[in-house]
Every structure is written in C-alpha cells, then in structure tokens.
Structure prediction request, 247 residues.
Amino acid sequence: MHNQMTSSQLAIPPQSLISPSTFKLNPEQLPTTTRDLVTNPDKRTPEGEKLPQAPVLSMLSMGSGSMSTVNSRIPVELVWKDINIVTKSQKNFRKILHHVSGVVKPGQFLAIIGASGAGKTTLLNYLSGKMLAHDLKSEGETLINGKSTKESSNYLEFTAFVQQEDVLMETLTTKECLEYAAMLKYSSDPEKRKQRLEELLEELELNNVRDLRFGGAFQKGRSLSRGEKKRLSIAVELITNPSLLFL
Prediction:
C-alpha cells in the first residue's frame, strides 16, 4: 500500500518550527516519534524493534537581508491550497497528494516530514515550478505574495531548487563549480563574481576544501565528503541570492 500525504500532515503550527531569533528547533511542535529522535538522538532502540523513519525535505523563505555583493532579497510568502496530484492512468490510479495546503512566510524554515513514498518530492517539485512526470496530473492553487504563480512571469527568478542527487561534475574542484555557476547565473564583472564566490565559500564553510575535487565513483584520491557536497550544491543555488530556497 502506498503512503499518501494529506493536508493534516502538513498542518502549519501556530508558530514556526524554527525560532526566527535563534534558529533552534522547537521539539514540542513535532510528532511524538520524530520528537524522540530529536531530543534523544542516542537513545537505544530495543532489539527487534525498527527505528521510526522520518525523511525530511524543506523550504526556506529568506528575509530581506543579503550579502554585500548582491541586491536585497524580495521577502516572499508562499501559499498553496488544495493541491491534488494523481496518476492519469485509470488502470493503476493512485492519489499522491490529496487536498494539501500550507504556507511558508518570509524568514521561516519549513520542514516537510513523511515516510518514503508519501509525496514529499512531488510536492516540492510542484511548488518550485518543476515539471511533473508525464503520467501525473495536478490541480490546486499556488500563490506568491498573494498572486498566482501562474500569473507571475518572474517566479522562477527568485526561487532556487537544490537537487537531492549529486549533479555537479566530479572532476571539478569546489572553487571551479562555483566559478562556472557564477559565470552562467551571476554578474559579468569578474571582480563581483570573485567577491561573491569568496562570500559563499566562507558562509558555507567550504574554504578549507576549495581546491578539492567534487569526487565520484570514478574519481581517485581525496574528494569532498557527503556533507561538503551538499553544502556546495546549496552554495551553487545561493549565488543569485534567491528569496525562496527548496532543499
């Protein structure tokens, strides 16, 4: 039986799960099983009992602040109402998302938690404007600052999407990955690109691995760790200083 994400699983708490002033998780607003994992990470699981699984995908709507080399962000509020996504085939009909609604406000971090196959990635793909699989059909309303995203021609200009898989070239170094991304997506001024690159290396704590290759199955020698690869993927998307980041 397939899991299905419903609006009750995405109910937005009265206050953000992340405190804007401290950016610390508030465990009291999490489900019991997830709360136990957060508050007791070293808690032993009884023999024969499976540890509860809680994969997480997230959205970060940033405030108006910015780094020195880029323009201020546009604060955005993303609202989605009654999102339904189902398969087109009547023979193998399946509901993936059923009447899902939610909101993320400027400066908030929203975590979407659910079991494997619940529809987390499908929801993020839909909200970020990425194309769904050809065998799926969708309905619902998505608003950005009160305006339908279908009517907003520049919606994709202030959003960014970090792929779950490693998509950067394994033969490039950390610095080279950012340099090429900056040339494609950022200023044509070499000095501005260099300054932005240095800011991101510092912010994402990648300075000490700036000359290491991304690495992969066929790349010999020392390369980036999984955590460093993820931070580099995030840095590549932060080059344009997006208002809304899908992780």
Remarks:
- The beta strands are 5-6, 56-61, 78-87, 95-104, 109-113, 136-144, 147-148, 159-161, 244-246.
- The first helix runs from residue 32 to 39.
- Confidence is low (pLDDT under 50) at residues 6-25, 33-39, 41-54.
